[in-house]
Amino acid sequence: MKRLFSILAITGLMTFGNVQAQDSTATEAPATEQVQEAAATTEEAAVVEEATDDQTVENVTFTQELKKRFIEGGPGFMGIVLICLILGLAIAIERIIYLNLSTTNTKKLVSEVEGALNSGGVEAAKEVARNTAGPVASIFYQGLDRYSHGLDSAEKSIVAYGGVQMGQLEKNVSWISLFIALAPMLGFMGTVIGMIEAFDQIESAGSMEPSLVAGGIKVALLTTVFGLIVAIILQVFYNYIIAKIDSIVNDMEDASISLIDILSDYSKK
């Protein structure tokens, strides 16, 4: 009988212990899950924050970075370099517009002048040249206008007025080359002055600390960078303008030779 009670007591204790263990496990499981969920949420927040920071860094455009560096360079030499860029671009754009308007289809013009000359005489050819824009047409008009004084006079007029038109095409181009040379020189001058100021700070402090001169050296180098950027931009425009002028001058020379041949043939009729 005692053995029976002992067995029942041991069985009851074991059953009660298993129930408590299950309850404890059931209670700890949600807590563990909550901890894991909190940790996961924290990691997600950190990832989102890091992604936001990366996106903010990526959203900084080249223009914004350029503006920031320009402000750091100081208003002194940076302002002068900026003036060189503005004036150089203004002249370059004006020249490009002028040269594009001066471009003429010389083959078509020569054909029209020759047809008008054969059908209506010199006055009809002059009217065609007068109604056509561009330096080639202006040279044609001057040559035709002087044809009444002889073929030699017309040829001299074409050559002389061709030089005048070439001067008009090259007008103000030398200023662009000046700004191309001036911008990096101003940048180098700003760098030298900035380095002198940095060494003055070292001398005043009596010690060589990187943090003491790093800012001054960075600002000094920025002037050179922007000077070189301005020179590169203006150099591209300058080369385009020179190539355009050479193309127009070649057309002028070819068209002038063709006009002299046409007038020579016309004078023999």
What are the main properties of this structure?
2 domains; mainly alpha; disordered N terminus; signal; transmembrane helix; 269 residues
Description:
With 269 residues, this protein is an all-alpha fold. It folds into two domains: 1-60; 72-269. Helix content is 90%, strand content 0%. It has nine helices and no strands. It has helices spanning 2-59, 62-72, 75-102, 106-120, 122-130, 135-145, 151-169, 173-205, 210-267. Helix 3 packs antiparallel against helix 8 (173-205), helix 7 (151-169) packs antiparallel against helix 9 and helix 8 packs antiparallel against helix 9 (210-267). The N and C termini lie far apart (155 Å). Residues 135-253 form the MotA/TolQ/ExbB proton channel domain. Belongs to the exbB/tolQ family.
